[in-house]
Design a protein that fits this description.
The protein has about 240 residues and is α/β, with parallel strands linked by helices. It has twelve helices and five strands. The chain folds into two domains: about 35 residues; about 200 residues, Carbonic anhydrase (Beta-carbonic Anhydrase, Chain A, 3-Layer(aba) Sandwich), CATH 3.40.1050.10. The protein has a five-stranded mixed sheet, sandwiched between helices. Strand 4 and strand 5 form a beta hairpin. The structure holds zinc ion (ZN). The site of zinc ion (ZN) has 6 residues, from helix 8.
Length: about 240
């Protein structure tokens, strides 16, 4: 949008003096509205200007837009062209593979906005940590957001001690969260929805801790305030992410 404030003032003066036709006034109004709702494609400059706090707020605002049905306008092909020579995402999101929880969609982000690591049960291992180190230390992301969700099949599987091929080892990564939730003695299985939810929340908390414990690079960046590490729970019934 090239219109400066001065252009607007001139325009409004001209409207007042009858120099501008009604049609062009409508065109300006609609283009101003489009500009207001248009997504920004991240560049080296916009990424550099984003703080960890601002990055978190951008994801909160994005989820607000998502649940209100007020998504920003994006020309994805244009964003592809704009980011082809280089990417400058502002955040890295660790989420579950669950088909209902696509973080890029549910936080209303576009091409080049966020790194996304997806794995059943949204935990971190050496490979995910390496990916996050790339995202933050090499590619400039300002925030790591760990997103758990309601009705998580992986969490339910861990609660029920499911044994199934390679999944057995995957679910072993979630067992510390199961063990860390006390109480619920009458039913500590996937049939107890409150227990499952408590384990999913604990898993986000432990994943955030593990990022700090197992990556000296990310811990140092967080301690210096270069990045933030945050958590959220996504509700598959409402589309709302609740930040911790
Ligand atoms: Zn899940």
């Amino acid at each position: 949008m090239a219109k400066t404030l001065e252009d607007r003032r001139t325009f409004l003066r001209n409207v007042g003096s009858g120099l501008v036709a009604t049609g062009s006034m409508a065109a300006l109004a609609s283009s101003a509205q489009a500009a207001h709702h248009e997504a920004v494609t991240q560049t080296k400059e916009t990424q550099a200007a984003i703080t960890p706090e601002k990055a978190l707020q951008m994801l909160k605002d994005g989820n607000d837009r998502f649940v209100q049905g007020k998504l920003l306008k994006r020309d994805h092909l244009q964003q592809v062209k704009a980011t082809g020579a280089g990417q400058f995402p502002f955040a890295a999101i660790v989420g579950c593979i669950d088909s209902r929880e696509s973080a890029t969609l549910t936080f209303d982000q576009g091409i080049g906005d966020v790194f996304a690591a997806r794995i059943a049960g949204n935990f971190v291992n050496d490979d995910i940590l390496g990916s996050l180190e790339f995202a933050c230390a090499a590619a400039g992301a300002k925030l790591i957001l760990v997103v758990g969700h309601t009705e998580c099949g992986a969490i339910k599987g861990a609660c029920d001690d499911v044994v199934l091929g390679n999944l057995t080892q995957t679910l072993a990564n979630l067992k510390p969260a199961v063990a860390a939730v006390s109480g619920f003695e009458s039913d500590r299985t996937s049939k107890n929805g409150k227990f499952v939810q408590a384990v999913a929340e604990k898993n986000v908390e432990l994943t955030m801790q593990r990022i700090r414990q197992r990556s000296a690079i990310l811990r140092d960046m967080a301690d210096k305030g270069d990045i933030g590490i945050a958590g959220a729970m996504y509700d598959v019934h409402t589309g709302r992410a609740t930040f911790m």
